[in-house]
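Milestone 3.1: sequence recovery, worked example.
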């Protein structure tokens, strides 16, 4: 894994942004040019890079809620690798650009992909993605410490040390050890003497009560149109995070993920560099390929020697047959009134126990709401006329029928115009769902507390949890025009 370029940017919510440190590696750039051939895109000047990054991260053009080069629905975003579109001579795309941010700093790097630019390889096949993120996290710890924010003098002194540090740990653009960037600012327990060598990425050892926390979080996104001419889309993205407080220089921990007998195999699996060994079949399943049923379906064992700080052990995607909540939204206009009809149905496989569940119905680009006459079969409706927004709080449970409805009319006769938004014009309206379901995942993936193995001198307390979140969960008006997403919504 090598870097074409590295940047450290200071900013205040996108204002007064500047590049505090940058480094380009000519030898790596020469390899990139040779690999890309006629498709080669050179790294532009620092000012251009700064503007492209701030735009892509949504930190510039605060007066514009929609920026075409970033928000066009035809563009396929594949987190965590950003794509920067370069205009002018030699225009094209810089990819993959990795970024992390904390406090006043944004750390970014452009990785070298040892493959021709087309067809673009799946992220799951690129080890440089996880290694690059880990390198940036180590650099972040060196500059800011673990969860701390040094004074400006401390940050300036560490930025001044960076040229010599980068020369030692990343000569010619290739890290020798990820992320060997010295000890963090916060004090750590000294390393005990012994035959085991302290790894560069581990800054100390734990003393005290042994505890292992494993959290599995799945996020589901959905675009539902209620129209036979447009296919509904949804995807599931899972992450497993760990916090291991275990004694020893190199303790061994194994976390096992299991699926139900009829569960779909996990795909696009990315793992943390601390994982010591892995069955190659675990990494080969990709959502881009057609699933023929022969993919590895578990159990998924991840042996590793954990760092001290919380870290993401792995991430994955899963193909589930249906989204958790199916919606049908009908909106028609009569004179200056909107007739609203909405049905939400909780799928039978989903646990009927929410931490929260809300449906937001915005009505932008109109006068302010006047008369709101709507009835709901369950829950509570809150009206914000200033924001032209209805918030339907469904609470912690659907009724026994697992179905809720809303009917009514809305009149817009307020004294002033309401909020505006380019996505919600006339009958192009939508519902956005927000929910969290504890103690379940949509794929059925789980971490059995008894399957977590820890090889240490003391027996730890093991804590596991799982939960399901919604993100970008839209139900569009079936009688209006809605954006159409191209391809997969997520890696």
């Amino acid at each position: 894994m090598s870097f074409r370029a590295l940047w450290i940017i200071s900013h205040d919510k996108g204002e007064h942004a500047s590049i505090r440190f940058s480094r380009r590696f000519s030898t790596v750039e020469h390899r990139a040019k040779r690999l890309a051939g006629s498709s080669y895109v050179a790294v532009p000047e620092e000012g251009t890079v700064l503007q492209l990054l701030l735009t892509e991260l949504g930190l510039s053009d605060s007066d514009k809620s929609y920026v075409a080069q970033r928000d066009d629905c035809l563009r396929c975003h594949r987190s965590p690798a950003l794509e920067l579109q370069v205009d002018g001579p030699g225009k094209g795309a810089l990819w993959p650009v990795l970024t992390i941010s904390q406090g006043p700093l944004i750390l970014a790097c452009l990785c070298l992909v040892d493959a021709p630019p087309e067809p673009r390889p799946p992220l799951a096949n690129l080890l440089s993605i996880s290694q690059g993120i880990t390198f940036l996290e180590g650099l972040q710890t060196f500059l800011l410490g673990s969860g701390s924010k040094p004074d400006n003098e401390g940050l300036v002194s560490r930025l001044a040390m960076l040229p010599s540090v980068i020369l030692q740990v990343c000569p010619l653009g290739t890290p020798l050890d990820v992320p060997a960037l010295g000890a963090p600012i916060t004090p750590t327990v000294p390393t005990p003497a012994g035959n085991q060598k302290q790894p560069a990425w581990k800054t100390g050892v734990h003393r005290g009560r042994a505890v292992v926390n494993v959290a599995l979080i799945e996020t589901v996104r959905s675009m539902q149109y209620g129209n036979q001419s447009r296919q509904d889309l949804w995807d599931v993205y899972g992450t497993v995070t760990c916090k291991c407080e275990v004694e020893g220089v190199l303790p061994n921990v194994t976390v096992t993920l299991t699926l139900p007998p009829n569960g779909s195999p996990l795909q696009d699996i990315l793992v943390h560099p601390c994982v010591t060994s892995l069955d190659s079949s675990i990494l080969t399943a990709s959502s881009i390929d057609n699933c023929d049923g022969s993919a590895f379906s578990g159990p998924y064992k991840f042996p590793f020697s954990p760092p001290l700080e919380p870290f993401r052990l792995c991430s994955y995607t899963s193909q589930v047959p249906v989204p958790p909540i199916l919606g049908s939204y009908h909106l028609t206009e009569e004179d200056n009134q909107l007739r609203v009809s909405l049905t939400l149905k909780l799928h039978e496989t989903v646990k009927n126990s929410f931490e929260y569940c809300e449906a937001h119905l915005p009505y932008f680009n109109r006068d302010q709401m006047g008369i709101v006459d709507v009835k709901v079969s369950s829950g509570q409706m809150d009206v914000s006329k200033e924001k032209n927004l209805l918030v339907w709080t469904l609470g912690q449970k659907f009724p026994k029928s697992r179905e809720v409805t809303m009917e009514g009319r809305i009149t817009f006769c307020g004294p002033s115009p309401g909020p505006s938004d380019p996505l919600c014009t006339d009958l192009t309206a939508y519902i956005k769902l927000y929910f969290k379901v504890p103690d379940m995942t949509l794929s059925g993936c789980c971490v059995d507390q008894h399957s977590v193995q820890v090889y240490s001198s003391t027996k730890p307390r093991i804590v596991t949890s799982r939960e399901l979140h919604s993100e970008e969960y839209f139900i569009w008006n079936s009688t209006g025009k809605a954006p159409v997403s191209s391809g997969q919504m997520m890696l």
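Residues 325-438 form a domain with the Immunoglobulin-like fold (CATH 2.60.40.1170). The mean pLDDT is 83.
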